[in-house]
Amino acid sequence: MSGKHTIAGVAAALPIANLDTDQIMPKQFLRGIDKAGLDRGVLYDLRFDGEGRPRYDFILNRAEYADCRILVAGENFGCGSSREHAVWGLLQFGIRAVIAPSFGEIFHSNAMNNALLLVAVSQADVDRFTRDVEQPASNRIEIDVDHLQVRSRTHDVKFTMSARHRAMFLEGQDLIGASLVHAAAIAEFERKHWDRQPWLQSIGAVVRARKS
Amino acid sequence: MSRTLYQKLVDSHCVLRLDEEHVLLYADLHIMNEYTSPQAFAGLRERGAPVRRPWQNVAVVDHIIPTHPLKQRVILDEASALQASNLARNCELHGIALFDTNDPLQGIEHVIAPELGMIRPGMVVLCGDSHTTTHGAFGALGFGIGTSEVEHVLATQTLVHRVAKNMRIRVDGRLSVGCTAKDQVLHIIASIGAQGARGYVVEFTGEAVAALSVEARMTICNMAVEAGARSALIAPDDKTLDYVSTRAVDLKRHLPRAVELWRDLCSDPDARFDAEHHFDASEVSPRVTWGTSPDQSIRIDERVPDPAAAVTPQQRDAAIRALRYIGLEPGASLQGLAIDRVFIGSCTNARIEDLREVAKVARGRKVDPRVRAMVVPGSGAVRDQAEAEGIAAELIAAGFEWRQPGCSMCLAMNDDVLRPGERCASTTNRNFEGRQGRAGRTHLMSPAMAAAAAVAGCITDVRRLERADER
Ligand code: SF4
């Protein structure tokens, strides 16, 4: 039984703690002014050697994991740099969800803003999922967002998600539109704020004008 | 009700509460760079939305910029040049203040913002860069944000903020000679771990923090993110006031009123923290990282730990992986480990005080001929001051390359890159695999320790050099 909003598919284990966004999306792929072509950069130095040849022993290069949609990762996944390119790249690469004991904080916000599902479960649960998906024969995972449940061949666990993040994931909310609804409240805030602390108004322009 | 400094700052910037966990937080200053903002401006254009408050924003070209010693800089890499011109166009279009490639005040965003008096106690600062925590040194709440959030800030001047937990890190005692704020913060990160502060805003307090200069406090807050902290704070004091009031000249007429408000920028005595840590600064020694995560550091006189002794299997695997990458054996000493490169720079350690420390070590010595050592000042102003103080001349005489300001080899997006296998003594903040170049090996340390490594040709205890000075 699975709900309407289910991510199911091949999962690959990346049992590496503190896998940072520099590794998820190395610097040479950050030179664009759009989001195109970032799938090439995903985990580049793990996928390719110094000459740009695929490392065939790396999990995502193995035929059985070619259609990978889910990563089962280590603690503090996505720590480090704020680069949202890491999230865009993972999505372009076909990844729809990451399961890990914990996530870097900015990465977490970035993922939510792009509907990349992050599932935080205990290290013990991650270990169980890892053991299953490391076997190509049992490398499928199902994440049911309606019932907040993850399932592999031998393991099954509930996870939590704040109401806000769940709505963002399920309905793909327009956050900017939602905040612009509060334009009047923002204007009212600014009036009082600058009344109280006038030195916080127009800092950028004031400093620039003084110096040039 | 008693509140922490963090709670006070959230309260004073809360436009409205969105739900149990989230607030709409007003941003007094939004700083942008060339590589995390283009897609945000593009999104805004598609939406047809204006920038709500252009004058609360600034932008700077810093990440991709070459640092060759030439006065007039040209960005040769086509894609990078496009990022810079695109930023200039976006700023022009929306009326946003820009510090462009050849602006004499250009520099690393987190160095120029405080230096030009943009950072004031009690404000909220956002930037599409994780080291925005730096500004906590002024009692300003700084958050690193992603590009979707950059777009949100441009459109609304606000951030949807998930309210964090409160952590206090109290540091008493005194740092001993040869030890710096960098050693202190590496010590803290090693102790609490790379995710020890995840989910928290950390407030640093205690006599050892009070004793630090404002610049040294920036080093501490800058690296708090390497323990996973959402942000960092230090309550402002007279030193802060002095630093800010000499730089933010427009503040002058407001100063009495501002100072009165800033006096309340501290945690109430009985405020509740969700977590607390205590450190003694006198126990800090010069530290160097041995691995590929900023929490993998040891005292210079310690030996590389044995992964077998790790507490969790995850830590053991991480240590094995790190040692393989960095090319070290368990039990090895870092002292005497030959290096190929030295990089002195970044928003962690490229301010004038840092360069003075470097000059103190370099004075009368020579960079080892096997080593290529670069000094990349944090800003044009730092560069000018170092030249005026004669520091630049001393460094050049010692054999250091004296470069133009920028992020440079902190993240190696320009042409300052480690070659595979090269070992580097670096004053930066991240020793991640490949951060300074594919297969490059980074050892994080203080500016004095990096300078000592440059002249010794290997990682060494700067205190030994200092003792030699005294003889
Ligand atoms: S110096 Fe390094 S850490 Fe600082 S903003 Fe630049 S790239 Fe980021």
TrEMBL record, chain A:
Keywords: Amino-acid biosynthesis, Branched-chain amino acid biosynthesis, Leucine biosynthesis, Lyase. Its EC number is 4.2.1.33. It comes from Steroidobacter gossypii. Belongs to the LeuD family. LeuD type 1 subfamily. Pathway: Amino-acid biosynthesis; L-leucine biosynthesis; L-leucine from 3-methyl-2-oxobutanoate: step 2/4. InterPro entries: 3-IsopropMal_deHydase_ssu, Aconitase/3IPM_dehydase_swvl, AconitaseA/IPMdHydase_ssu_swvl, IPMI_Swivel, LeuD. It comes from the Bacteria. Heterodimer of LeuC and LeuD. Pfam families: Aconitase_C (PF00694). GO terms for molecular function: 3-isopropylmalate dehydratase activity. Catalyzes the isomerization between 2-isopropylmalate and 3-isopropylmalate, via the formation of 2-isopropylmaleate. Residues 6-122 form the Aconitase A/isopropylmalate dehydratase small subunit swivel domain. NCBIfam families: leuD, PRK01641.1. This is 3-isopropylmalate dehydratase. It catalyses: (2R,3S)-3-isopropylmalate = (2S)-2-isopropylmalate.
UniProtKB/TrEMBL annotation, chain B:
Keywords: 4Fe-4S, Amino-acid biosynthesis, Branched-chain amino acid biosynthesis, Iron, Iron-sulfur, Leucine biosynthesis, Lyase, Metal-binding. It holds the Pfam family Aconitase. It is an enzyme of class 4 (lyase). GO terms for molecular function: 3-isopropylmalate dehydratase activity. It comes from the Bacteria. Transmembrane segments: none annotated. Binds 1 [4Fe-4S] cluster per subunit. SUPFAM superfamilies: Aconitase iron-sulfur domain (SSF53732). Residues 8-457 form the Aconitase/3-isopropylmalate dehydratase large subunit alpha/beta/alpha domain. [4Fe-4S] cluster binds at residues 347, 407, 410. InterPro entries: 3-IsopropMal_deHydase_lsu (IPR004430), Acnase/IPM_dHydase_lsu_aba_1/3 (IPR015931), Acoase/IPM_deHydtase_lsu_aba (IPR001030), Aconitase_4Fe-4S_BS (IPR018136), Aconitase_4Fe-4S_dom (IPR036008), IPM_dehydratase_rel_enz (IPR050067), IPMI_cat (IPR033941). Its EC number is 4.2.1.33. Its cofactor is [4Fe-4S] cluster. The keyword Metal-binding applies. Catalyzes the isomerization between 2-isopropylmalate and 3-isopropylmalate, via the formation of 2-isopropylmaleate. Heterodimer of LeuC and LeuD. PANTHER family: 3-ISOPROPYLMALATE DEHYDRATASE, HOMOACONITASE, MITOCHONDRIAL-RELATED. Belongs to the aconitase/IPM isomerase family. LeuC type 1 subfamily. This is 3-isopropylmalate dehydratase large subunit. The gene is leuC.
